[in-house]
Specification:
This protein is α+β, with helices and mostly antiparallel strands. The protein contains 9 helices and 13 strands. Among the domains are: 129 residues, no CATH class; 83 residues, Sporulation related repeat (Alpha-Beta Plaits). It is 48% helix and 20% strand.
Length: 326
């Protein structure tokens, strides 16, 4: 999750900062000549180590791209940093595909060696290193040894070859046309005997299958049908099961029509709801569990208000994902 998001951020901006680690930025290297080889231009990732920088902008982008809350996105970044630190403790370097290698020097500083990332080098796609000097000299030497041909002879040979090709192609087209004319009756008869018969057989088989299905359907006994009274009876049974917990239980809050309840989570059972309260540390609010008469779900309520505006303002101050139940 972190590496693909880092690359995506570098495609949008020239630098990305990770809190507690440092800053990554894209550096454009122009074409270079080394040892008679021309290397094409490349975009590489440079890294500046610093534990004092703040990378909230990257956390915000990660939250948007992965549809996470800000605290969840920050937790993912911290988890990745912990994995990187543990990896460098057990080995000299940690490598990430299409990104690069992290290493730790004796002073404790983390250094980075970039790999060639295809996404950052789309503009340079197709460029390959080219060998010069020695190969050019070899080609020049080879060309000197070859005898020089007369251009008129070469042009005549090309024309003769082209004429032979067109002549052969014309003969083949003429033969194919003649065969089509003489054998059209044979082809039509073959189509009538093979394809038309198959189509008729398929239609007959479909009609027989449909008739068998209708016959089987009509033979169903009356006792196999479900009556309207049975459906109504089952619905009444299901509705009787969806009843809110008794208001006498201290942890539950009785639902009152006209009130507005700020909901911090909705669950299928009380156990999950209580675990959510503990994990999110919601005990500091007047937290109660509430069950709407029309739904069996157990909801975590952290506030009750007389109007919708106050309820929505209270929910927005705590968490944008919290909502209001009327």
């Amino acid at each position: 999750m972190i590496i693909p998001s880092l690359i995506r951020a570098l495609l949008e901006e020239n630098s990305v900062t990770i809190t507690g680690l440092g800053t990554f930025y894209v550096k454009k290297l122009s074409a270079q000549i080394k040892e008679e080889v021309v290397y094409p231009p490349q975009n590489v990732i440079e890294f500046e180590y610093s534990t004092a920088v703040e990378g909230f902008d990257f956390v915000s982008k990660l939250s948007k791209w992965e549809q996470l809350r800000i605290d969840e996105a920050q937790a993912e970044v911290s988890k990745w940093l912990d994995l990187l630190a543990k990896g460098l403790e057990h080995s000299k370097s940690v490598f990430f595909d299409d990104f690069g290698t992290f290493s730790k020097v004796l002073s404790g500083k983390i250094v980075f060696q970039s790999a060639i990332n295809p996404q950052l080098n789309i503009e340079n796609e197709g460029f390959e290193p080219v060998i010069i000097t020695s190969k050019i000299k070899e080609e020049q030497h080879r060309n000197v040894e070859k005898p020089v041909k007369d251009k008129r002879i070469m042009l005549r040979q090309k024309k003769e070859k082209r004429d032979r090709t067109w002549f052969t192609l014309t003969i083949l087209i003429a033969l194919a046309t003649l065969m089509a004319v003489f054998l059209k009756d044979t082809f039509y008869h073959f189509y009538q005997t093979i394809f038309i018969k198959n189509e008729v057989s398929l239609v007959i088989e479909e009609v027989e299958n449909e008739s068998a299905y209708i016959s089987n359907t009509m033979e169903v006994e009356a006792e196999d049908f479900i009556t309207i009274d049975d459906v109504i009876s089952n619905e009444n049974k299901n509705e009787s099961k969806v009843t809110p917990p008794p208001a006498s239980n201290e942890i539950y809050l009785s639902y009152q029509k006209g009130k507005y309840y700020v909901i911090a989570g909705s669950f299928t059972n009380e156990k999950d709801a209580l675990r959510h309260i503990k994990e999110k540390k919601l005990e500091k609010y007047p937290t109660k569990l509430i069950v709407h008469p029309d739904s069996p779900r157990v909801r975590v309520c952290i506030g009750v208000f007389d109007n919708k505006e106050d309820a929505e303002n209270f929910a927005a101050q705590i968490d944008k994902n919290y909502w209001v139940l009327k």
